[in-house]
Design a protein that fits this description.
The protein contains three helices and nine strands; from the N terminus they run βαβαβββαββββ. It is of the alpha/beta class. The chain is globular, with a radius of gyration of 16 Å. The structure holds inosinic acid and magnesium ion.
Protein backbone atom coordinates (compact mmCIF):
# COMPACT_ATOMS: atom_id res chain seq x y z
CA UNK A 1 0.00 0.00 0.00
CA UNK A 2 1.37 3.38 -0.99
CA UNK A 3 1.60 6.47 1.15
CA UNK A 4 1.95 10.09 0.33
CA UNK A 5 2.14 13.23 2.39
CA UNK A 6 -0.30 16.09 1.87
CA UNK A 7 1.12 19.48 2.80
CA UNK A 8 -0.62 21.07 5.78
CA UNK A 9 1.83 23.87 6.65
CA UNK A 10 4.27 24.91 3.89
CA UNK A 11 7.94 25.62 4.56
CA UNK A 12 7.63 29.41 4.07
CA UNK A 13 4.88 29.65 6.70
CA UNK A 14 6.94 27.65 9.20
CA UNK A 15 10.02 29.83 8.64
CA UNK A 16 8.03 33.02 9.01
CA UNK A 17 6.45 31.84 12.26
CA UNK A 18 9.76 30.61 13.69
CA UNK A 19 11.26 34.06 13.01
CA UNK A 20 8.40 35.68 14.94
CA UNK A 21 8.73 33.30 17.89
CA UNK A 22 12.53 33.70 17.93
CA UNK A 23 12.09 37.48 18.02
CA UNK A 24 9.73 37.16 20.98
CA UNK A 25 12.17 34.88 22.81
CA UNK A 26 15.04 37.30 22.06
CA UNK A 27 12.99 40.12 23.56
CA UNK A 28 11.98 38.13 26.65
CA UNK A 29 15.51 36.89 27.44
CA UNK A 30 17.48 39.93 26.20
CA UNK A 31 20.91 40.08 27.84
CA UNK A 32 20.20 36.96 29.87
CA UNK A 33 21.38 33.40 29.74
CA UNK A 34 19.02 30.86 28.13
CA UNK A 35 19.42 27.08 28.25
CA UNK A 36 17.57 25.37 25.38
CA UNK A 37 16.59 21.75 25.95
CA UNK A 38 15.75 19.86 22.79
CA UNK A 39 13.48 16.85 23.14
CA UNK A 40 14.86 14.30 20.68
CA UNK A 41 14.31 13.31 18.04
CA UNK A 42 11.24 15.27 17.02
CA UNK A 43 12.42 18.64 18.34
CA UNK A 44 15.78 18.62 16.54
CA UNK A 45 14.93 20.45 13.30
CA UNK A 46 12.78 23.02 15.08
CA UNK A 47 15.47 23.65 17.72
CA UNK A 48 18.14 24.40 15.07
CA UNK A 49 15.90 26.69 13.04
CA UNK A 50 14.74 28.50 16.18
CA UNK A 51 18.12 28.80 17.92
CA UNK A 52 19.94 30.40 14.99
CA UNK A 53 17.38 33.23 14.96
CA UNK A 54 17.65 34.09 18.68
CA UNK A 55 19.67 37.31 19.02
CA UNK A 56 21.45 39.03 21.94
CA UNK A 57 20.82 36.14 24.28
CA UNK A 58 23.53 33.96 25.84
CA UNK A 59 22.27 30.60 24.54
CA UNK A 60 23.39 27.10 25.49
CA UNK A 61 22.04 23.73 24.28
CA UNK A 62 21.29 20.39 25.83
CA UNK A 63 19.45 17.35 24.55
CA UNK A 64 17.17 14.78 26.11
CA UNK A 65 15.43 11.73 24.76
CA UNK A 66 12.29 10.35 26.37
CA UNK A 67 9.81 7.64 25.58
CA UNK A 68 6.35 6.95 26.88
CA UNK A 69 5.70 3.58 28.40
CA UNK A 70 2.85 1.61 26.88
CA UNK A 71 1.88 0.58 23.41
CA UNK A 72 -0.07 2.43 20.79
CA UNK A 73 -0.07 6.00 19.66
CA UNK A 74 -1.47 7.48 22.87
CA UNK A 75 0.78 8.66 25.62
CA UNK A 76 0.48 6.83 28.95
CA UNK A 77 1.80 9.64 31.10
CA UNK A 78 4.75 7.63 32.38
CA UNK A 79 7.88 9.00 30.81
CA UNK A 80 11.09 7.05 30.62
CA UNK A 81 14.36 8.97 30.18
CA UNK A 82 16.25 7.30 27.33
CA UNK A 83 19.03 9.90 27.25
CA UNK A 84 19.35 12.36 30.10
CA UNK A 85 20.74 15.90 29.97
CA UNK A 86 24.53 16.38 30.19
CA UNK A 87 24.39 19.58 32.24
CA UNK A 88 22.78 20.49 35.57
CA UNK A 89 19.88 22.98 35.51
CA UNK A 90 20.52 24.84 38.76
CA UNK A 91 19.98 28.57 38.41
CA UNK A 92 19.38 28.42 34.65
CA UNK A 93 16.60 29.90 32.54
CA UNK A 94 15.40 26.75 30.83
CA UNK A 95 13.34 26.58 27.65
CA UNK A 96 12.08 23.14 26.62
CA UNK A 97 11.88 22.86 22.82
CA UNK A 98 9.38 20.24 21.66
CA UNK A 99 7.91 19.22 18.31
CA UNK A 100 4.28 18.79 19.33
CA UNK A 101 2.04 18.79 22.39
CA UNK A 102 -0.74 16.29 22.00
CA UNK A 103 -2.32 14.84 25.17
CA UNK A 104 0.18 16.81 27.26
CA UNK A 105 1.22 13.77 29.32
CA UNK A 106 4.87 13.87 28.21
CA UNK A 107 5.48 17.54 28.97
CA UNK A 108 3.37 17.58 32.11
CA UNK A 109 5.58 14.87 33.55
CA UNK A 110 8.83 16.18 32.11
CA UNK A 111 8.42 19.77 33.27
CA UNK A 112 7.80 18.60 36.86
CA UNK A 113 10.84 16.35 36.69
CA UNK A 114 13.09 19.14 35.39
CA UNK A 115 11.65 21.64 37.85
CA UNK A 116 12.99 19.45 40.67
CA UNK A 117 16.54 20.11 39.37
CA UNK A 118 16.36 23.71 40.54
CA UNK A 119 16.28 25.88 37.40
CA UNK A 120 15.72 29.61 37.84
CA UNK A 121 12.82 29.42 35.39
CA UNK A 122 11.33 26.87 33.06
CA UNK A 123 9.16 27.50 30.00
CA UNK A 124 7.93 25.50 27.03
CA UNK A 125 8.25 26.26 23.31
CA UNK A 126 6.50 23.99 20.82
CA UNK A 127 6.28 23.94 17.05
CA UNK A 128 2.81 22.39 17.03
CA UNK A 129 -0.04 22.25 19.49
CA UNK A 130 -3.16 20.06 19.37
CA UNK A 131 -5.26 21.68 22.13
CA UNK A 132 -8.33 19.56 21.34
CA UNK A 133 -6.45 16.43 22.48
CA UNK A 134 -5.25 17.79 25.83
CA UNK A 135 -5.66 15.53 28.87
CA UNK A 136 -3.01 17.06 31.12
CA UNK A 137 -2.50 20.76 31.59
CA UNK A 138 0.73 22.11 30.11
CA UNK A 139 1.68 25.79 30.40
CA UNK A 140 2.93 26.58 26.88
CA UNK A 141 4.68 29.94 26.63
CA UNK A 142 5.55 29.83 22.92
CA UNK A 143 3.57 27.92 20.30
CA UNK A 144 4.00 28.27 16.54
CA UNK A 145 0.88 26.56 15.21
CA UNK A 146 -2.34 25.14 16.60
CA UNK A 147 -3.43 22.23 14.46
CA UNK A 148 -6.56 20.02 14.29
CA UNK A 149 -6.61 16.43 15.56
CA UNK A 150 -4.66 14.91 12.67
CA UNK A 151 -1.49 12.82 12.73
CA UNK A 152 1.22 14.94 11.17
CA UNK A 153 4.78 14.38 9.96
CA UNK A 154 7.75 16.40 8.75
CA UNK A 155 9.99 19.08 10.24
CA UNK A 156 11.29 16.51 12.72
CA UNK A 157 8.07 14.58 13.27
CA UNK A 158 7.87 10.98 12.15
CA UNK A 159 5.54 8.18 11.24
CA UNK A 160 7.46 4.98 12.03
CA UNK A 161 10.76 6.94 11.90
CA UNK A 162 10.03 8.20 8.37
CA UNK A 163 9.46 11.73 7.03
CA UNK A 164 11.45 13.62 9.70
CA UNK A 165 13.47 15.39 6.99
CA UNK A 166 10.52 16.98 5.18
CA UNK A 167 10.84 20.79 5.23
CA UNK A 168 7.07 21.17 5.74
CA UNK A 169 4.34 19.74 8.00
CA UNK A 170 2.07 17.25 6.30
CA UNK A 171 -0.57 14.59 6.82
CA UNK A 172 0.12 11.00 5.76
CA UNK A 173 -2.48 9.67 3.35
CA UNK A 174 -2.77 6.07 2.19
CA UNK A 175 -3.62 5.12 -1.37
P1 LIG B 1 1.80 13.79 24.40
O1 LIG B 1 2.40 13.23 25.66
O2 LIG B 1 0.52 13.10 24.04
O3 LIG B 1 1.67 15.28 24.41
O4 LIG B 1 2.77 13.30 23.28
C1 LIG B 1 3.61 14.06 22.60
C2 LIG B 1 4.49 13.20 21.73
O5 LIG B 1 3.74 12.29 20.92
C3 LIG B 1 5.23 14.09 20.79
O6 LIG B 1 6.45 14.51 21.34
C4 LIG B 1 5.39 13.23 19.56
O7 LIG B 1 6.58 12.46 19.66
C5 LIG B 1 4.21 12.30 19.58
N1 LIG B 1 3.13 12.79 18.69
C6 LIG B 1 1.94 13.27 19.06
N2 LIG B 1 1.19 13.63 18.00
C7 LIG B 1 1.96 13.39 16.91
C8 LIG B 1 1.76 13.57 15.49
O8 LIG B 1 0.71 14.05 14.99
N3 LIG B 1 2.78 13.20 14.68
C9 LIG B 1 3.95 12.70 15.16
N4 LIG B 1 4.19 12.50 16.47
C10 LIG B 1 3.20 12.85 17.34
MG1 LIG C 1 8.40 14.17 20.72
Amino acid sequence: MGQHVRVLIPEEDIEKKICEVAAKISEDYQGKQLHLICILKGGAMFMCELAKRIKDVDVSFDFMSVSSYGAGTTSSGIVKIVKDLDEPLEGKNVLIVEDIIDTGHTLNHLSKLLMDRGPKSIEICTLLNKPSRREKEVPVKYSCFEIPDKFVVGYGLDYDQRYRNLPYIGVVEFD
